Amino acid sequence: MPVGSPYRRLSRRIRALPGLLSRAPWWVLLVVGVVTTALGVLLAVRPLSSLTVLGVYIGLSCVVSGLGDLVTRRHAAGWRPLVSGAGWVLTGVAVLVWLGRSLELLGPSVAVLLIASGAVRLLDLRRGPTADRALSGVFGLSEIAFGLAARWWLDATLLVVAFLFGVRTAAFGLSLLWRGVGLARRTPSGARRPSRGAALRWTAAGVVLLVASTTLAVSHQFRQGVPVLDGFYDAPDAVPDEPGQLLRVEPYSGDLPPGLVAHRILYTTTADDGVPALASGVVAVPAEPTGRPVPLIAWAHGTVGVARACAPSLGRDAISTEGMPAMDALARNGWGMVATDYTGQGTEGDFPYLIGQGEGRSVLDAVRAAHQVPDLDLSPQTVIWGHSQGGHAALWAGQLAPTYAPDVAVVGTAALSAASDPLSLAQVVTAHPGALGASLGISFVVAAYSRWYPDISLDDVTPAARTLVREAAARCTSEPGSLVTVLTGVAVSADTPILRSDPTTGAIGRRLRENVALGPWTAPLFLAQGGVDEVISPRLQDDYVSRLCAAGHPLRYTRYADRSHMGVLEPDSPLNADLEQWTGDRLAGLPQGNTCG
Question: Does residue 235 belong to any structural domain of this protein?
Fold first, then answer.
């Protein structure tokens, strides 16, 4: 077939081993067969290693193929063998030298090749019998569908390629063993293997098309859940340098707790390096007048991703009873709430994931901006709440308030299931890479830190894992597609680490250590922790609290037995009543007891 010939020639170039072993003696086949089978089984369950070996294999195959051309040049006339041989040798060397980059291009290359192959099949429908053309059309459509899905889900595509390479390697090893012991079936000369006819081909075509259509439909459905930015988040023509300035406000129509009305806000803040930045958020107040100024709760949300489209204010749950504590207490007590998206979510800029200065400033400037919303009568008293990543942000906001925003009267800081010590958290993740969501956390940290800090880059990521990290950092945890990220993370957890070196050492370790909030806090501090938290280890929180107590920081620390990471926020959690009482006491100016010692 005209189209198949170039494919076959290319296949021979990038698969040197079958040609080298085509005339090998039986004992060589046995030895290579055992080694190749074992290697294939190992690679099938270790996708990152599989991708690395695949890159090395392709590079070496190109070099061997080119050397073969150069060796045979003495038996051939003309310059073509010389040019061809040198070209393939250089191609192989380039693949080996730029192995990381070639693996990053592997996913897009697979997608392009599938789409191109399917298009060629469809264009070739003019020739051949009608039944063959119909079959070719079915396979062509299937290849295009798989190609589109591969382009949308590059990390999943790489894992499939890695798995198939391992399986194929094992199958090739078994075939060598079969040949080596002389047990391969042989068809007598001139005999034909019985044909199963067109029915088998049509069945195969139907199955392939069904799988391809289902894959494409599921991929499309997953992509439907991706948030879409609107013009509200665009920077205005004139942006003041002063942080905490309200730039834009409009009604927010999300699913609010009963008795509240809300507005979406755009305001100025300061990035970690001191550069002016923009942030967005939502401010909600009681719908009915309270007859007195409304105290503000500054909410710092937990991990939702690091991409711009992950801003909670884009959706309907920026201030909601879902995943937030004591929400029914707001209207009942006459409290308001301002919930920041932080910089880089909604607005342009870099998202400060577990970067304390950037998180804390976004929280405090949201309070400043909320006080400028027309027709709101807000009290200067502010209490900060945060959960998970937001607990880390709350700790930093409370710590920064006296120096960065002395005009914001913070009367208390509550950090719930907080990622209080990013360095210790990295140690736990490194020790348990298969933990659910571990790869997400690593990807988010590396993606964010590489944008904020000049001494950290994606070069710190294992070459085979860079596509996985980039794809994870481009998704939001609320998207259906984040399931792909979690599954890929579980798949690679038993393989080589995502990072080249231990994240608790070197530049990453140093930056993680910089982002541990150690105080002081001038307002009362409340830390809460679930006893069976699967994300933030209770032992990690215990150690952090002990460290603060040893340094002389008074605080209240409460553990909630049988409560998971999100379980502490559920409506029946005792934390809700405790948090409401603690907040009321702070606004009333009552002293807080100290659980240290």
Answer: no
> Exposed, middle or buried: residue 326 (CB in 10 Å: 0-12, 13-18, 19+)?
buried
* Nearest residue to 413 (alpha-carbon basis) of 296, 547, 526, 298: 526
Q: Are strands 260-270 and 246-251 parallel, antiparallel or unpaired?
A: antiparallel
Single-letter code of the amino acid located at 564: S
| Residues 293-315 as b or e (16 or more Cβ within 10 Å = b) | ebbbbbbbbbbbbbbbbbbbbbe
Do 366 and 449 reside in the same domain of the chain?
no
Q: 3-state DSSP call for residue 197?
A: helix
Token pair for 432: 């348990």
For residue 438, give Cα distances in angstroms to 388, 430, 490, 492, 503: 14, 9, 8, 11, 13
In a domain, 355, yes or no: yes
In contact, 314 and 307? CB cutoff 8 Å: no
SS3 467: helix
Whether this model's pTM surpasses 0.85:
no
Tens of pLDDT along 402-456?
999 999 999 999 999 999 999 988 887 776 655 555 666 787 888 899 999 999 9
Beta-strand runs (E) in 406-549: 409-416, 525-530
| Burial class for 280, CB neighbours closer than 10 Å (0-12, 13-18, 19+) | buried
Q: Which residues of 114-136 are buried (b: 16+ CB within 10 A; e: fewer)?
A: bbebbeebbebeeeeeeeebebb
Q: Let me know whether 54 and 103 are in one domain.
A: yes
Residues 209, 355 within the same domain: no
From 21-25, 336-340, 508-512, 561-565, the region with the lowest mean pLDDT: 21-25
Per-residue pLDDT reduced to its tens digit, 552-564:
999 999 999 999 9
